Amino acid sequence: MKKTCKICQQKLNLGKIYCSFKCYWKRSPKFKTSCKECSKKFWTYPSFIKVGQGFLCSNVCKYKWRAKFYLGEDTKKHPELASKARALLNYNIKMNKIERLSCEICSNPKSHGHHEDYSKPLEVAWLCHKHHQLIHTGKLKI
Fold first, then answer.
1. Which residues of 113-137 are buried (b: 16+ CB within 10 A; e: fewer)?
2. How far is Cα 19 from Cα 11, in angstroms, rounded to an integer?
């Protein structure tokens, strides 16, 4: 006796419960929740909430929410200026106009550009992830 898909009743091979990912996702009912950043109502799956996702409605809200916890005070005041500065820096690195240097503190070759002033997008301090986070949390000064 062959099994059938619980959603569309299509016949299945042994060991399968659903015929496709489409039916698999239909099995868990969506529910409406509100975004933790903008309070907009949106639909999500219960499984997303379990793994720490599904509490923000869009990538825009995700980046705003992340900026509150991981980025500096200046980024919170001027998010559009910070975004443009990062984009301009990344573009110049890609076009080989600016060379990515090693960390100014520990000489780690894997470094990030840290903007002290977003109005000067190409003036950055090159820092590894560890030292970059220490500066943003206020535990280290350049």
1. bbbeebeebeebbbbbeebbeebbe
2. 8
Q: What is the mean pLDDT of the chain?
A: 80
CA 69, CA 60: separation in Å to the nearest integer?
A: 15
CB of 125 within 8 A of CB of 104?
Answer: yes
First to last CA, the chain: 71
User: Residue for token digits 């949390």?
Assistant: 137
Q: Model pTM?
A: 0.48
Only one residue has tokens 């200026």, namely 81
Q: Name the residue among 135, 95, 101 with its Cα closest to residue 115.
A: 135
Domains of the chain by residue range: 71-136
